[in-house]
Amino acid sequence: MRPRRLDAVIAFAGVVAVVLVAGTPAPAEAHTVAGVQPTNYRSEILAVTPAVAGLRLRLLDLGRRIELVNHTSTEVVVLGYQGEPYLRVGPAGVFENRRSPSLYQNRPLPFGASATTLPPQADAAATPTWHKISSGHVARWRDRRTRWEGKASEIVRGTHGRTRVVVTSWTIELRHGGRPVLVDGRITWMPPGSPLPWLAVALALLVAAVVMARAQRWGRLLAGCVAVLVATDLVRTIGQTTASHDALGVEVARALLGGIFSLAAWLVGAASIGWLQREDDGGLIGAAAAGLVIAIFGGLTDISVLSRSQLPFAFPGVIDRAAVAVSLGIGLGVAAGAVLRLREPFRLRGRAASP
């Protein structure tokens, strides 16, 4: 491939990547397949009073959702923001009250909307209209009481990295066979670590990948870099997806649809490994494309992971941060190194070069 034609291909790929990132309503969610963004606010359940055998509650998605499991023979009713019956979970399944304002307030806002517009049938004082949504005994719902929304709390400003409780107590009221059950929790601001060490790691990996591309056995070295890059991004996607604790089918669909750009990069990167080992131009083009896409959608758009303390990740947070550093550093390094190799005359990079 001639240098001018190569430059045109590289420029076109760069423009496409920029348009994809800039045209996404929420670029930071491009690779966060669960749609949950990192934060510095930790929400936790402190107590369920009184404790009921067979009734279990936990927070999901960093406090954005609640899961209630009812293994008892008695129905549990979840009360909404105005004390109205909102959800019902029992032996007959899971039901939602179509008259509950909380039902509509807890739904995700349409793009561009800043507030929920309640439909005419929403009335906290009306007789509940129950609609069955599941035959199981597990209910999951979004709840504004268990998460921090909006700007940073005044309490955390000027704390110099100290932990602060910003919501001393939030409460969700249940009815277990007519008996009140209170779920109490709190929200704490957890200071984040500095992103600088991780950015230094990313820079070191970038330089190392470029140096490998200039080495004598560059084909095998770049093939190894691409293999590490794809494996790292795959592991990170699994960690993000399984953190939601949804059904396996839902998690697989979310990973495939939410990470469509990464999926394409995995396939192209895997295909380029064999060509790189043969020091073929096709391997360099595939490596450059895969490296650039993973660097953008697995590193750049998720760079806030490096400066947040609470991460939507099923494994330890250090793995998530390391994966972002690897995606950013090796991804850009492989892309840059492959482009430099492609721009060299064939006699200097091909295996058939004359001595």
Provide structural commentary.
By secondary structure, the protein is α+β, with helices and mostly antiparallel strands. It has nine helices and ten strands. It has helices spanning 3-22, 101-105, 196-214, 218-242, 248-258, 260-277, 281-300, 317-343, 346-349, and strands spanning 41-49, 55-60, 65-70, 76-79, 85-90, 93-97, 130-134, 138-142, 164-176, 179-189. Helix 7 (281-300) runs antiparallel to helix 8. The protein is elongated.
The total strand number stands at: 10
Task: Count every helix, treating DSSP H or I runs of 4 or more residues as helices.
Answer: 9
Please tell me what the overall shape is.
elongated
Strand composition percent = 15-25%
Poorly predicted regions are: 1-30, 347-355
Mean pLDDT value:
85
Number of domains: 2
- Fraction in helix: 40-55%
What would you report as the Rg, rounded to the nearest angstrom? Answer: 25 Å
Distance between the termini: 22 Å
Provide the succession of SSEs: HEEEEEEHEEEEHHHHHHH
Please state how the strands of the largest beta sheet are arranged side by side: 1-10-9-4-5-6-7
**Category by helix and strand content:** alpha+beta
Largest sheet: 7 strands, antiparallel
